Amino acid sequence: MNQPALSLRQLTKNQSARIVSIHATGELGRRIRDMGLVPGVEVTILGRAPLRDPVALKVHGFTLSLRNNEADHIQVEPLQESTT
Amino acid sequence: MSPTIYLGLAGNPNSGKTTLYNALTGSRQQVGNYPGITVDKREGFTNVSGRLLHIVDLPGTYSLTAYSQEELVARNFLVEESPALVINVLNATNLERNLYLTVQFLELGIPLVLALNMMDEAEKSGMRLDTELLARMLGTPVVGMAARIGRGKEELLHTVISTAEQTDQSSWRPLEISYGPDLDPVIQQMCGIIRQNSFLTQRYPPRWTALKFLEEDVEVTRRGYEADPETASRLEKICREIAEHCERTLNTHPEAIIADYRYGFINSLLKQGVVERSRAMNRVSFSDKMDRVLTHKFLGPLVMLAILYAMFQITFEVGEIPLQGLVQLFDWLSEGIKAILPPSTLRSLLVSGIIDGVGGVLSFVPLIMIMFFCLSFLEDFGYMARIAYMLDRLLRGFGLHGCSVMPFIMSGGIPGGCAVPGLMATRSLRSPKEKMATLLTAPFFTCGAKVPVFLLLAGAFFPESPAQILFWLTLVAWTAALLVARLLRSTIIRGESTPFVMELPPYRLPTWKGLFIHTWEKAWQYIRKAGTLILAVSILIWAAMSFPAPPEGSTHAVKQRIQSIQAELEEAEAKQRRTSLQKELQQARGQQDKLRLSYSLAGRLGHGLEPVSQWAGFDWKTNISLVGGIAAKEVIISTLGTAYSMAETDSGQGASLSQKLARDPSWSRLKGVGFMVFVLIYSPCFVSVITIIRESSWKWGVFSVAFNTLLAFALAVLIYQSGQMLVS
């Protein structure tokens, strides 16, 4: 059922996924965790800014944004029911 | 028991903390600074059943790390000022994340009252919250409320008072949660060492110190080494070993494990029945629908430009009415004084020094209030974060950060801000390099003090299109700021960019109370500046323009001429003869005053600069006003006003300064444009320079004065010289 892990950057709009691991340390890691992004949490891609970067996510019913190169540190497994 | 209860108000950004603070304290607020740093210290008071509550509004934070000044301020307040208790405001619709901060307060052993705010929204979205269960599980009082509509405010206040009366500090035991099989034994071991050596135990609970060492917290480690270097290095060694172990066996870091367990603790709490969600949770929220348009690929930027443009159209259309009223009021005051007092140094001081100077500045208060009102609206509405989101990619390209937009807009990216709060807003930027670049370029924008200068010149040379002129100048400011930022970031402040991770808060209609409090706060800062600094400066400048008086000999001829015309005027009967005599008299007086001004200290300085400034077409009067403008940009107008009203005393009855400039042969459209660009770019005002110095170092302050002035002069020369070539 589960697909192999991807980086968060590779998800497309409206796709949902569960966070598997986060490989950011220091301040970036801290800030990602402060926002509630930890393994096990489900996220949905809401869209990208007009210049394709940063990306906006739904987490716990809230909207967060982070840059593509920051999303690279977050490994996810896409959820099946994601719409196209 | 003391009648005053000292409270802290803490919570995540966007949790409605400010709304609650305004609801609790109303108008009994004051804003100051924490010593040594520039985070605002907001304090307010309220009376409840005979007790005075003294509430400190802590900066909104997500966590209690040492990464930002805001978080350090909050943490140090809790440890050092020992408030009776802390009201922790939580957004009830997002407890998973909001409780993360709460857990850290509890671990610090701070007496808490939880205010679950936005209960109405949570209920609307299909959530059911059991506040009593949460209270039992955490061992802290919990009050459900909706600060926006005033729900739960009384209950909160009574809970706060009764909790504060019942508890004394020692009865609050820090929360201890498990950090799993890898960390728990290590934490135990560290706590043992900490207790044995009384290591920082005066300040923090032992477990907190252990956790902070594991998180490699810079500040706690530093304090540890200051207090007891031996124990500190022992603890650090243990931390290094466990970090290596975690890295090797789990491919992770103690800091990440600690965060995971904190969230795990919160999730298990919530799953035990605190939160129940009905299916309705999955519906697309109103905010998301708005975002589909407002951050759309094409529509988003268009709407953004439209909003920014509409904002200053509103400001000028609406602001024009009270502005004209105030201008007339001050004209009337000047005329009144002129009617009462005979020409004298005192009259000159009152009219040219004080009324022209301060009146010119104060008459823009309505304009500034409307602009700040719009600005507060956009911020409270949640749109500012979208601007940062949409522009981050662009700004990063110039070595800045999406969050640089905020300081830029505050400084006048939308005309009418002020560089001082704008520069202060840079402290939300956590990268020193992006912050430096933002600090140095923020003064380029069209701040509220420059706007009147531009309006004045636009009125004189482009009377049909003041709003367009302002729009173009704003674009010039943005271009200059971005290019200079790029230049600085690739030369003297090179380096990597910092994390962007940021919340896009749901759109919310701001409360009137909040908008008015913000607007008034900003307007008051401006008025206070006008009332003190600018008053002092305009008197100084008036003095510099009046003294030293020219020697008797040099004005003798003019004086005699004035006397003879006056004598003739008294005898003249024919109307025609009288008018032509009066004209002559005005000219003679003008000459006399020009002589006087030109002889004064300011005149000499203006003359001295002329050989250089003529390259940009600036004459000595322009020079005087620009030098004055370094003190404060408002002074440019008041100085020009003083210069021109002094040079033509009594002649231009009712004629505004802008008409005077339009009629003056030494001015032209070309000089007007060059002048506006120069004013836009050159040295930040005195207060801004002080702010830059406080946010960085005095070297950067000096740099900004010199660099900006040189750049501005180069641009003004370029405009003037190329324009001249095109014309001829």
Structural summary, described in words:
The complex is a heterodimer of chains A (84) and B (728). Chain A is of the alpha+beta class and 84 residues long. Chain A has one domain (6-78): SH3 type barrels (Roll). Chain A contains 2 helices and 6 strands, in the order ββαβββαβ. Chain A has helices at 26-34, 68-71; strands at residues 6-7, 16-22, 42-48, 55-59, 62-66, 74-78. Chain A has a 6-stranded antiparallel β-sheet. In chain A, β3 (42-48) and β4 form a beta hairpin. The longest helix of chain A is centred in the middle third of the chain and has 9 residues, at 26-34. The radius of gyration of chain A is 12 Å and the shape is globular. With 728 residues, chain B is α/β, with parallel strands linked by helices. Among the domains of chain B are: 4-171, P-loop containing nucleotide triphosphate hydrolases (Rossmann fold); 180-282, Helix Hairpins. In chain B, 66% of the residues lie in helices and 7% in strands. Chain B is built from 31 helices and 10 strands. Chain B has a 7-stranded mixed β-sheet, sandwiched between helices. In chain B, β2 (29-33) and β3 (40-48) form a beta hairpin. The relative contact order of chain B is 0.07. The A-B interface holds A 21-22, 25, 27-36, 38-39, 46-47, 49-54, 56, 58-67, 70 and B 62-63, 65, 67, 93-94, 96-97, 100, 125, 251-253, 255-256, 259-260, 263, 281, 285, 287-288, 291-292, 295-298, 300-301, 389-390, 392-394, 396, 402, 430, 498-506.
Summarize the structure.
The complex is a heterodimer of chains A (84) and B (728). Chain A is of the alpha+beta class and 84 residues long.
Helix content of chain B: 55-70%
Quaternary state reads: heterodimer
Proportion of strand residues of chain B: 5-15%
Span from first to last CA of chain B? 84 Å
Rounded to the nearest angstrom, the radius of gyration of chain B is 31 Å
Can you list the strand order of the major beta sheet of chain A? Answer: 1-6-2-3-4-5
CATH architecture of chain A: Roll
Kindly report the CATH topology of chain A. SH3 type barrels
* Biggest pleated-sheet summary of chain A: 6 strands, antiparallel
CATH class of chain A: Mainly Beta
- Principal-axes shape call of chain A: globular
CATH architecture of the domain at 4-171 in chain B: 3-Layer(aba) Sandwich
Order of helices and strands of chain A: EEHEEEHE
Uncertain parts of chain B: 647-654
